[in-house]
Amino acid sequence: MMFKTRFLPLFVLLFCIQVYAHPGFRQITFSDQEGAVINVAVWYPTSSQGITEDVGENPAFTGVTVIRDALPTPGLHPLLVLSHGYNGNWRNLSWIAVAMAAQGYIVAAPDHPGTTTFNQNPAQAKKLWRRPQDISQVIDLMTKSPRLFGETDKGRIAALGHSLGGWTVMELAGARFDAARFAKDCLQQPLRGDCNVMQKLSIDEVPSQEKLSASYEDQRIRAVVSLDLGFAPGFTPQSMHGINIPVLILAAQMDSLANLSASQESGYLANEIGSRWGKYEIIEGATHFSFMQLCKAGAEALINEGSPGDGIVCQDGNGINRYNIHQKLVAKISAFLNSSLDFHSPADETK
């Protein structure tokens, strides 16, 4: 009996890996209300044993292993929607996508027009309010496409975002942005990373301020995860006091690398939301870029060759391995989401 009890957790882990060893994967596109094309990557549970391939890989970054266009597993699945950072893309958060798909989640990640690696159109970048709307439209698409991705459990929908993506998902949670408040704060902190892109995103222009002050809350979302977000000082305290869904706020310990102060960004968010709904933690050894995908050996130098200075995205804390950071993050994020959504993965059925 002691032998069985001692090794049960290992058996449960192996069972989960066996059921969803590699997620299904599809890429789709749709046009938003203004005609902008949005590319979406989707990972989802499958029991298929098809041909695997690595997606999201390039000379600098590692990819993740999937089964393209596999049949989805029957039954209801929670939905997690991801939002990348400024000029990032769906590949940046693929490490958490495959981990959550392995637990039974459908995971969808759009490329936000104007602020993605592959579309940096200045006019679209200035429509920052479109970002949370992108996520809401992706939720619409996922819930209407059970044959492609599996059936979404509409009572178990969550959103996760990194950097500007963190700002995006907080908008969806009910936080309201005051552009004038943010601009005033930047007068005191002109070198802060998010203040440096204020003009590029048109935050200091009156027409944008009116749009940004509106509510983009999506009440279908039941939990939110913010990874080292930016632009937090623009959120009004009143709106954050009104948030009534669980929020996990994770910040980088090495915040100076991207000039995003944990105390002024994630810390401010946590203080205003309060401990009833907010859970705040600083990730030891993590930089702002540790929340992105894994870099290959020599990637920093390779990136700097083509774009001097951008190799910083491969830097973590001294002696810290990004893979290990990701493993810790996966444990924290999955535990939070499973608890907040009251979801039990298929492996739990063996306990």
The largest sheet is: 10 strands, mixed
Number of discrete domains: 1
Number of strands: 10
State the helicity in percent bands.
25-40%
The strand line-up of the biggest sheet is 3-4-1-2-6-5-7-8-9-10
- Give the uncertain stretches in residue-range form: 1-18
Structural class, from helix and strand content?
A: alpha/beta
Q: Which geometry do the CA atoms define? A: globular
GO molecular function: 1-alkyl-2-acetylglycerophosphocholine esterase activity
Domain Serine aminopeptidase S33: 79-173
Signal peptide: 1-21
GO biological process, one term: lipid catabolic process
Question: Can you offer a commentary on this structure?
Answer:
There is one protein chain. By secondary structure, the chain is an alpha/beta fold. It has a single domain (22-341), classed as Alpha/Beta hydrolase fold, catalytic domain (Rossmann fold, 3-Layer(aba) Sandwich), CATH 3.40.50. It contains 12 helices and 10 strands. It has helices spanning 2-19, 94-102, 122-125, 130-143, 146-149, 164-173, 179-188, 206-212, 237-241, 266-273, 299-306, 322-340, and strands spanning 24-31, 37-44, 53-55, 64-68, 76-83, 106-110, 151-162, 223-227, 247-254, 278-287. A 10-stranded mixed beta sheet has the order 3-4-1-2-6-5-7-8-9-10, sandwiched between helices. Strand 3 and strand 4 (64-68) form a beta hairpin. Helix 4 crosses helix 6 (164-173). The longest helix has 19 residues, at 322-340. The two termini are 14 Å apart. The relative contact order is 0.13. Mean pLDDT is 91; it is low at 1-18.
